[in-house]
What we know:
Chain A is mainly beta. Chain A has no helices and 10 strands. Chain A has strands at 5-7, 10-13, 19-24, 31-37, 44-50, 65-69, 75-79, 88-95, 103-104, 108-112. In chain A, strands 2, 4, 5, 8, 9 and 10 form a 6-stranded mixed sheet that branches. A 4-stranded antiparallel sheet of chain A has the order 1-3-7-6, with no helix packed on it. Chain B has 113 residues and is an all-beta fold. Chain B has strands at 4-7, 10-14, 19-25, 32-38, 45-51, 56-59, 62-67, 72-77, 86-93, 101-103, 107-112. The A-B interface holds A 4, 31, 33, 35, 40-45, 48, 50, 56, 91, 93, 98-99, 101-102, 104-107 and B 4, 34, 41-46, 49, 89, 93, 96-106.
Amino acid sequence: GAGVSQSPSNKVTEKGKDVELRCDPISGHTALYWYRQSLGQGLEFLIYFQGNSAPDKSGLPSDRFSAERTGGSVSTLTIQRTQQEDSAVYLCASSPVGAGEQFFGPGTRLTVL
Amino acid sequence: KNQVEQSPQSLIILEGKNCTLQCNYTVSPFSNLRWYKQDTGRGPVSLTIMTFSENTKSNGRYTATLDADTKQSSLHITASQLSDSASYICVVSAASGTYKYIFGTGTRLKVLA
């Protein structure tokens, strides 16, 4: 069956531009997570969606970062006015229930020039 | 502070050899510990999950051990194959039902022919 998909796989942008990263979770999974993976670092929690509950945005590093999940399925992570330090791999994961086993997408590699 | 430390950072072994990767954590209270395999350019894939009461769990040539008293875990890979070349990430859950996971920085394994 289809796993978690993310698009684009790679994104190169200029400093100051806005970017949108998309995540399609596994159908029926209620929980969705966004993480950032920088070179040599562990995965950094960004945001968590669970069903219709208010998302936990406590991991977002600044107000330039935002995310939404429409219809309990697809999620979009938006980074406004990108900075070079935003360069990283952004991973999305979904799980059938909150705190359940996570299934990760392949990630989006973002490079900010 | 909840932390997960992995060693070594990187490891090179010859095909057919065994190896052991280490994970030490300071997470408390402890709920469960997972090992993930992350191939280059892919998202992490779960190998094993262990709760407080479990000492060992196997998944094919992968065997994970857990000592909850010393807060240490290891991942043993038997008869390594070229396809085992990847990063191996230790992830600890702080409490039952939490969606906040603490990720180690991973061990990068390279298996040579």
